[in-house]
Design brief:
about 500 residues; alpha+beta; Thrombin, subunit H; Pdz3 Domain; 3 domains; about 30% strand
Length: about 500
C-alpha cells in the first residue's frame, strides 16, 4: 500500500512538471512569433533618383500620374457616310494602335486613340493615324467632359497631328528635351488602351533612335524618288502600351512630355514587351510648323544614307564603325549636300555639335530643321575629317518656306466628268446632264455608291448642262456644305440622289 501511494505521488508530480514545462516553453515559443505592422515611409520611397537639379529625390509615380492624367484625353474618330471599316490587321510584328479593327463592311467607322493637351487654350497633339480621314473627332477629357475637335494640321511623315477644342484654362503638359533622356531612365506611358480611360503604366527607356520602318509602310504613297520621306527615330520603352494608347503621352518622372506613343512591337497586336514613341524634340517642331504655316517646313539635305555596320565598313574599307554612310546623292539639282561638296562614300559623324552614330539620328536631327537653316556637317572621307557647311533646302530644292497646298474643291470629288452631246441626251429623253466617266479616290467614292456612267442632271435642284457648270457651282460651296447630285443611269429609268458634305 505504501509502495502504491509512492507511485501515485510520483505520477502526479511528473504530470505537474510536464504541464508546467509545456506551458513555460509554449508561452515563450508564442512570444517569439510576431506580425509586424509598419506605419512608416512607403516602400516606393526607398529608392532614389537624381533630378535635373542634381538633388536626390525618392522614386514615386503617384504625383506624376495625377498631374499627367489630367492632360491626356480620349479621342474618338468617326468616318461617316458609306465608308468602310479598316481591314483586319495582319500579324505584322510592328503595329500601329489605332483601336479595334474588324472585317470590311459598309457603314460608319469608329476608331479610338489618345491625345495630349499641350496648351491651356485647347491645342492637342496626337497621331495622324488616329484622326486621318475622320469626319467627326470627339475629345473626352479626364473629367468626362466631351467636345468636338477641329483638325488644325497633320503630317504623315512623322505620323503627327494637331487638333483643337474650344476650351480655355485646361491642364497641359510641357515639352522637355528628349535629347537629354537616357537609356534606363524611368518613364510613364499614359493613354486609353482598349477604351480604359486614364491608364498609367511604368517602365524604362529601353533604347533611343529606333527606326522600325512603319510610317511609310502604312503610307506607301509617301515614298518618292529620293527614298523614304518618313522621320523615324523612336524612343523605345518597355512601359506597357496597347491599342488605344496611340497619341498618348510618354513622360519622365517630373511629368515632362518626352514623346508621343505611336507603335508597338508585337506578334499579336497587343503588348508584348516594347513600344515606340516619337521624341518630343520632333513633336514640338512639327507642332510649331503646323500652327505657324499650316504645313511642316522640312529641311532636306538631298542624300540617301545608311547606318554603318561591320559588313558595310568592311565592304567600303571605312575607317569608322559609327555614323551615317552617304549611299547616294541624286542628280536632280535639288541636293543641298551635293551642292555643298559632300560626296558619295562620305561618312557623316557629326551635325553641328551633335554626334551622329546612325542614319536615324541624322534623320531626326535634320527633321528639326527648316529650309534655309545652315548646319556644319562633319564627315570622314577615307580617314580624313572634313567640316562642310550646308544650307538646307526644301523638298523642291529651294530655300523658301513651303506653302500649304490648297485643294481644288472639284478635284477633291475624285471623278472625271464629260459633256454629253444633244443626240445622246435626246435618246435618253434628257434635257441636260454631264456623264461620270471615271471614279477615283475622293469624296464621291468615299461617301456614296455612285458608279461610272451616272448622268448628273441637277446639283441642289439646279440643272447642269456642262462640266463647266458643275465646276462653277461647286466652287461656291464651303467646307461643311451639303451637296445633292441628282441624275439617272442610262439603263435605269428612275432618278437617283447622292448627298454628301465637303
Amino acid at each position: 500500500m505504501k509502495n502504491f501511494g509512492s507511485l501515485v505521488l510520483a505520477a502526479i508530480l511528473g504530470s505537474t512538471i510536464t504541464i508546467g514545462a509545456y506551458q513555460w516553453f509554449g508561452k515563450n515559443d508564442r512570444q517569439g512569433v510576431k506580425i509586424e505592422h509598419i506605419n512608416g515611409v512607403p516602400s516606393s520611397q526607398v529608392a532614389y533618383r537624381i533630378n535635373e537639379n542634381g538633388d536626390a529625390v525618392p522614386i514615386d509615380f503617384t504625383g506624376t500620374a495625377e498631374k499627367v492624367t489630367k492632360a491626356v484625353v480620349h479621342i474618338k474618330s468617326t468616318q461617316s457616310g458609306n465608308t468602310k471599316l479598316h481591314e483586319q490587321e495582319s500579324n505584322d510584328p510592328l503595329q500601329f494602335f489605332f483601336g479595334p479593327n474588324g472585317p470590311r463592311q459598309q457603314g460608319p467607322s469608329v476608331s479610338s486613340g489618345s491625345g495630349v493637351i499641350i496648351n491651356a487654350n485647347g491645342y492637342i497633339v496626337t497621331n495622324n493615324h488616329v484622326v486621318q480621314d475622320a469626319d467627326i473627332v470627339d475629345v473626352t477629357l479626364s473629367d468626362n467632359r466631351s467636345f468636338k475637335a477641329e483638325v488644325i494640321g497633320t503630317d504623315r511623315d512623322t505620323d503627327l497631328a494637331v487638333i483643337k477644342i474650344n476650351q480655355k484654362d485646361l491642364p497641359y503638359l510641357s515639352f522637355v528635351n528628349s535629347d537629354n533622356s537616357k537609356v534606363g531612365e524611368w518613364v510613364l506611358a499614359v493613354g486609353n488602351p482598349f477604351n480604359l480611360n486614364s491608364t498609367v503604366t511604368a517602365g524604362i527607356i529601353s533604347a533611343k533612335g529606333r527606326n522600325i520602318n512603319i510610317i511609310n509602310s502604312n503610307n506607301p504613297s509617301r515614298n518618292n524618288e529620293q527614298g523614304s520621306t518618313a522621320i523615324e527615330s523612336f524612343i523605345q520603352t518597355d512601359a506597357a502600351i496597347n491599342p488605344g494608347n496611340s497619341g498618348g503621352a510618354l513622360v519622365n518622372l517630373d511629368g515632362g512630355l518626352l514623346g508621343i506613343n505611336t507603335a508597338i512591337a508585337s506578334p499579336t497586336g497587343s503588348y508584348s514587351g516594347y513600344g515606340f514613341a516619337i521624341p518630343s524634340d520632333i513633336v514640338s517642331k512639327v507642332v510649331e510648323d503646323l500652327l505657324a504655316y499650316g504645313t511642316v517646313q522640312r529641311g532636306w539635305m538631298g542624300i540617301q544614307v545608311r547606318s554603318i555596320d561591320s559588313d558595310l565598313a568592311k565592304e567600303n574599307d571605312l575607317d569608322v564603325t559609327e555614323g551615317a554612310y552617304v549611299a547616294d546623292l541624286p542628280d536632280d539639282g535639288k541636293s543641298a549636300a551635293k551642292e555643298a561638296g559632300i560626296q558619295k562614300g562620305d561618312v557623316i559623324v557629326k551635325l553641328d555639335d551633335a554626334v551622329i552614330k546612325s542614319s536615324p539620328e541624322l534623320i531626326e536631327y535634320i527633321g528639326r530643321k527648316r529650309p534655309g537653316d545652315k548646319i556644319n556637317v562633319t564627315v570622314d572621307r577615307k580617314g580624313k575629317t572634313l567640316i562642310i557647311p550646308v544650307t538646307l533646302k526644301n523638298r523642291d530644292g529651294k530655300l523658301g518656306a513651303v506653302k500649304r497646298e490648297k485643294k481644288d474643291i472639284v478635284s477633291s470629288l475624285g471623278i472625271e466628268m464629260g459633256d454629253m452631246d444633244t443626240k445622246t441626251l435626246k435618246k435618253l429623253d434628257l434635257a441636260n446632264g454631264v456623264v461620270v466617266k471615271a471614279l477615283g479616290n475622293g469624296v464621291i467614292k468615299k461617301y456614296t455608291d455612285m458608279h461610272e456612267g451616272f448622268i448628273i442632271t441637277h446639283i441642289d435642284n439646279v440643272a447642269v448642262k456642262s462640266v463647266k457648270d458643275v465646276s462653277e457651282m461647286l466652287k461656291k460651296k464651303k467646307s461643311g456644305d451639303q451637296v445633292v447630285f441628282a441624275g439617272v443611269y442610262p439603263d435605269f429609268p428612275r432618278e437617283y440622289l447622292y448627298a454628301f458634305r465637303f
